[in-house]
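queue> pop job 88
queue> type: inverse folding (structure -> sequence)
queue> payload:
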């Protein structure tokens, strides 16, 4: 079900051990440390592979995440704001990643710019609780979504490069 490239990417992202969400106080602090270690490793792997495509940071509590993601198409960089909240039932429930500026521009999106991950990603997440974390959501959720949706939106003229519109 997963191609070799995805399998290789996944095997290089550290798995998480602590099953804790924001309501779990001390355990959440441990989980957050694991999340950051996993994210740092994933970002470093991407940079090493010349595949750097996002930046994320969180609020102090680690419950709200935000940053930028980008997609290169025909040698042009298309950049988008990305945001998500950690669900109350995390890690049993995957985060819902949103690209607010694309809200309403594709059928594969929910209100508020939340990308549709239900068919492919959520069952995989459910089978891998608590091992999967934010880095996995980016690698298996947002990354493939961008790769499929952004070229289609560009082809339809729904998304245009900022330099072409300015």
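queue> result:
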């Amino acid at each position: 079900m997963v191609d070799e490239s995805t399998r290789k990417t996944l095997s290089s992202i550290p798995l998480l051990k602590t099953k804790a969400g924001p309501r779990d106080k001390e355990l959440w602090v441990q989980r957050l440390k694991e999340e950051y270690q996993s994210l740092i490793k994933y970002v470093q792997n991407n940079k090493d592979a010349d595949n750097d495509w996002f930046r994320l940071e969180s609020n102090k509590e680690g419950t709200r995440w935000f940053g930028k993601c980008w997609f290169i198409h025909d040698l042009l960089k298309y950049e988008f704001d990305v945001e998500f909240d950690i669900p109350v039932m995390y890690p049993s429930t995957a985060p819902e990643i949103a690209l607010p500026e694309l809200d309403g521009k594709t059928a594969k999106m929910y209100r508020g710019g939340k990308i549709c991950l239900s068919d492919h990603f959520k069952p995989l997440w459910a089978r891998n609780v608590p091992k999967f974390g934010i880095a996995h959501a980016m690698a298996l959720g947002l990354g493939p979504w961008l790769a499929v949706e952004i070229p289609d939106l560009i082809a339809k003229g729904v998304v245009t490069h900022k330099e072409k519109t300015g």
